Amino acid sequence: MKRFLLTAVALAAACGASRADDAKRPDAKADAKFIQGAVSGSLLEIRSGEIALQRSANEQLKKVAQKLIDDHTKATQDLLVILKSKGVTPPDGLLPAHQAMVDRLKKARAEEFEGEFLKDQLAAHEEAVALFEAESKQGRDPELKAFAVKLLPALQEHLDMVRRLMTKGTRGTGE
Predict the structure, then answer these.
(1) Which residues contact 131 (CB under 8 A, 6 or more apart)?
(2) Which of 158, 159, 151, 160 is nearest to 133 (CA)?
(3) Residue 97 lies in a domain
(4) Domains identified in the chain, total number
(5) Does the predicted model carry a pTM greater than 0.85?
(6) What is the mean pLDDT of residues 63-67?
(7) pLDDT value at position 20?
(8) Taking Cα atoms as reference points, which of 134, 108, 126 lies closest to residue 41?
(9) What's the pLDDT band for 11 if we cut at 50, 70, 90?
(10) Measured between alpha carbons, how far is 32 from 88 in angstroms, rounded to an integer?
(11) How far apart are CA 137 and CA 30, in angstroms?
């Protein structure tokens, strides 16, 4: 009986300590998906933007690509600071769907590249806006939630830029 009580006390103490630690760390279920999606999504934008700078002749598309690189590099740096403060190791690499987008862009024929880039950017930014909206409303970690709220307007701006380019067309230099 004493052994049972000691085990129960030790378990209760461990659970209490665990809960105290959890207050500092993102919720394993709710916020982990956000972290993975945010890191992978930003890496996707950076990599696909770099490819667009190399492969596109369209100056408007290149401006959008550079803005994506700049904004997502800053966002990734900000998120990594938050994760480091919590002792959370950031996810490594792209999600499979994001890696497939990068691979498609690398392999796209020249005449297909801009259309593929914009189609992927539309899908990626719709996904990112939904992810950041969910975190801003349902996230449990206050710092991650604030990060999502802060970044959401920029993601919506990116989505609008991509939609405008798609509507305008990408033939020629766009000048």
Answers:
(1) 33, 34, 37, 38, 41
(2) 151
(3) yes
(4) 1
(5) no
(6) 97
(7) 42
(8) 126
(9) very low
(10) 10
(11) 11
**Cα 124 from Cα 11, distance rounded (Å):** 44
Q: How many Å apart are CA 117 and CA 37, to the nearest integer?
A: 19
Q: Is residue 111 part of a domain?
A: yes
The pLDDT value given to residue 85: 95
Cα dist. 61→76, 115, 135, 141, 156 in Å? 22, 11, 29, 36, 17
The answer to whether the beta carbons of residues 43 and 75 sit under 8 Å apart is no
Q: Residue 144 sits in which domain range?
A: 27-168
Domain of 47, CATH number, reads 1.20.1260.10
The pair of structure tokens assigned to 13 is 């103490």
Task: Note the pLDDT tens digit of each residue in 68-123.
Answer: 999 999 999 999 999 999 999 999 899 999 999 999 999 999 999 999 999 999 99
Q: Which of 70, 87, 83 is nearest to 39 (CA)?
A: 83
Contact (Cβ atoms closer than 8 angstroms) between residue 132 and residue 152: yes
Q: Is residue 120 part of a domain?
A: yes
Nearest to 174 by CA among 75, 65, 86, 62: 62
- Tell me whether residue 130 is in a domain: yes
Contact between residue 32 and residue 26 where contact means Cβ atoms under 8 Å apart: yes
Does position 124 have pLDDT exceeding 60, yes or no?
yes
